[in-house]
Design goal:
The protein is an alpha+beta fold and 327 residues long. It has eight helices and ten strands. The protein is elongated, with a radius of gyration of 30 Å.
Amino acid sequence: MTKKQIPNQRIRKRLLIPLAAVLVVLLGTFVFNTYFMYKTHSDHDIQEKLVSTKAFIDTNIQQTASLLGATLDVISQNKSLQIALAEKDRQTLLKLSIPLFEPLVQDYNITHFYYTGPDRVNILRVHQPERHGDKIDRFTTLQAEKSGKTSYGLELGVLGTLTLRMVSPLYNNAQLIGYVELGREIGYTIEEISKITRLLEVELVLAIHKSHLNIDQWEEGIQMLGRDSNWDKFPYSVIIGNSMDTIPEEVAAVLSEEPHNPRNIFLKIDNGEQKYRGGIIPIVDVAGNYVGDYFVLHDVTFNYINMRNHITLVSIICFAAGIILFF
């Protein structure tokens, strides 16, 4: 080796080592910044999805309430129904109400139709004619009794179904003759909301806490709605609405925890190539009770693949540049 080659090798080493270090630092900085931006964007995005989903749910509930109110107005003005209610004539009420109820079920998924006396004792459930004679002590009925006006809100019934209920008092010459109530089980709201939220790459799971339910009545209510019971699947909650094929393990883990207060949990779900980020919207009924949770899951798979591809591409470029510099 000549004396001229030795200085050249030293010069190369002095150049290559710093350049390699610079490439490593630049690559590390790029990877960190790319991941940080991805995570920040994902966190911000799920917050927006939670707000948007809550707004969709509230809007759907208000639209359903408007539908229930308009339908109750029509029913309340039916003189034949008023007479039958005042006389507590169950057979006539049922005969007159079935033609009204069937299109409501078919077109609007109305699931509950009640006639109740002035004493709040149920006269007829059009959706379950065999069940009657019990006293109705739900918040909406008590509010309608107290205010003398229509009352509505989300409630858990004795059968454990979370339902948007609207109760309207009926009068004849200023004399209270009873109450008419319509309700729509909230699971149908999830189905409608899911059609919209899927366009936003959002999935929904709706769970109700078992502490507010009775297993026998729950089974009866689920059978009435034509659904399968999942009472034993989780220790503290039951699923009443789900837009996903399977419940992710991370959601199942939360459902296996006893709920004490409204939960503010960020969910990170990695199901193979499928990636979700999510959060929880607490469900509070019209009386202010914390009765369940909406799990909102945003599909971030595309963003994740984009980030991974960018990192891979830049890593290949840096590696190739390092090889070129070495040779």
